[in-house]
Amino acid sequence: MSQDKLSIAIVGAGMGGLAAAATLQQFGVDVQVYEQATQFGRVGAGIQMMPNSMKVLRGIGIEAELRQAAFAPKSHLNRMGDTGEVTNELAMPEDRYGAPYLCLHRATLHSALAGEIPAERLHLGHKLAGLEHYDGYVELVFENGVRAQANAVVGADGVHSVARDIILGSEQRPYNRGRVAYRAVFPASLLGGLDLGNSRTKWWGTDRHVVIY
Questions:
Q1: Domain containing 162 — which CATH number?
Q2: Would you name the residues annotated as active-site residues?
C-alpha cells in the first residue's frame, strides 16, 4: 500500500464514528466509514448537548441545522421528586458559555453528522470480521467478503465492538452493573396543555431520578 495521503478507516457510523470522520476529513485525511447496518433508522430518544459539545459541532459545521430542531433550555432545574421543591438551578445562557445548550432527538444529531460525510465514503452493510496488520497499513476484512486497506483503523462500533475484541480479546466485554435507564419520546399534546416550563428538569428520588425536557 503506497499513497501520500493519510487514510483512516472508521468502523461504526454512530455518533462517535461520524463525528470523527467529519473532523478528520476537514484536515484532508482520506476517511472511509464502515457500518454494519444496512440503513439508518430513527432510533433512540432525547440527548443533551452541552456548550462544549456544541463548540465541537459548530466546528464540524452543523450547529445551525441543530438549532432549527432543538430545544434550548434556560437552565438545569433540580426538584425533589415527592414535593417538587426546587433544590438548585443552574442558568445556561449562551452568552456565558459561548455556545448554546441544546436538547434534541438523537436521530436529529445523527442525521446532521451523516450529512457531512460524502456518500462515497459511507459504506453500509459492512460488518467487521477481522483486522490484518502489515507494514504501514491495516487490512479490514468484512463479513460480506469485502476487504479494505487504511493506514490506521478507528474502532467506533459500539458497546459490542468487534474491533475491541480483536485488539483486546473477548474478556474485555462489558458487563451489567444492574443499572437501567428508560427513555421515551411522546407528543407534548398528550400533556393536555400542561406547561413543563423552559428548563431541563430533573426530579430526584431516593434511589432513582427522572429527567424531562
A1: 3.50.50.60
A2: 213
